[in-house]
Amino acid sequence: MGDVAAVPVIIDCDPGHDDALALLLAVGDPRLRLLGVTTVAGNQTLAKTTSNALKILALAGAVDVPVAAGCDRPLVGELTVAGDIHGESGLDGPDLEVPVGGVADVHGVELMRRLILGCGEPVTLIATGPLTNVALLLRRHPEVAPYVRRVVFMGGSTDRGNTTPYGEFNIVTDPEAADIVLRSGLPVTMIGLNVTHQALATTQIIEEFRGMGTRLGVICADLMTFFASTYRRVFGFEHPPVHDPIAVACVIDPSIIATVAVPVTVELVGAYTRGATVVDLHGRSGAVANADVAVGIEVEAFWRLLMAAVRRVSEV
Ligand code: BDR
Ligand code: CA
């Protein structure tokens, strides 16, 4: 593991219970170098997602990672937060009282620009919230594109949605932003609900977190217990899916995620389907593939990656 140079990444997120696990995975796995974290409005308001990102990084002992707040609303229209899933704070459940680091005095999009241009090698952007910041970066600063290795985002689905019948939350929240990213010409990987719904925080997984015997382990268990309660109430799921860390895992070890290169567009107009990802799995449109779309996951390998990272971070 130690022989290969760590992949430089920026995480753009809206914590969020599963975003929190994504951050812990990125901090705790030595195969990644977390250059910075930018926040976006989504699961909760920007002030709350930013505060949550600072708390998780502080708990992970990563206060040296720069954090900047990005966009407080989608490119078009009003923000609708997901308080029904993530609670009033965006991270309801555990006691997250912790002294936090400061937020950078620049906009999140500007922090991304600086980190990308200053890195010295192409940077991977991992987006686990609405794609507002990433789209704005590509529109406002096209000069960064050659220095972006790829964009990996959690969002969309090859089948149904979770916010509307066909729309997944991150894409429905800012369809225009997703459209810009998918049309950018950059290598894009989409980790959708069709795969994330296979990685469930079962009772056994929650007990494994709790059994770590560390404050962080207990916090992860409490986060997943709250998440389980809302997924049960809203969707009737027996166990909650942990979407966002799969986007991080896919960068750490691509062998655990199966993908297919296919054309993906975002429905921007549909009366009932705005924000749906239209994934042409069988090439019927004749369009050129613009995304690697996740179609399978090695669930057990994913959990081993995540648990190892949380254990490593707990020891700090
Ligand atoms: C996505 O929406 C959010 O609620 C989660 O954090 C995840 O990024 C799943 O649809
Ligand atoms: Ca998220």
Concise synopsis of the structure shown:
It comes from Winogradskya consettensis. GO terms for molecular function: purine nucleosidase activity. The chain is of the alpha/beta class.
Description:
InterPro entries: Inosine/uridine_hydrolase_dom, IUNH, Ribo_hydro-like. This is Pyrimidine-specific ribonucleoside hydrolase RihA. Keywords: Glycosidase, Hydrolase. GO terms for molecular function: purine nucleosidase activity. 38% of the residues lie in helices and 17% in strands. The protein is built from 12 helices and 10 strands. The protein has helices spanning 17-28, 46-59, 83-86, 108-118, 132-140, 169-173, 175-182, 193-196, 203-210, 215-235, 245-252, 299-314; strands at 7-13, 32-39, 67-69, 123-127, 148-154, 188-191, 257-262, 264-266, 277-279, 291-297. Strands 3-2-1-4-5-6-10-7 form an 8-stranded mixed beta sheet, sandwiched between helices. It has a two-stranded antiparallel ribbon with strand order 8-9. Helix 1 (17-28) packs parallel to helix 11 (245-252). The protein is globular. The model has no long low-confidence stretch (mean pLDDT 97). Bound molecules: beta-D-ribofuranose and calcium ion. Beta-D-ribofuranose is lined by residues 16, 18-19, 43, 82, 85, 128-129, 154, 162, 168-170, 243-244.
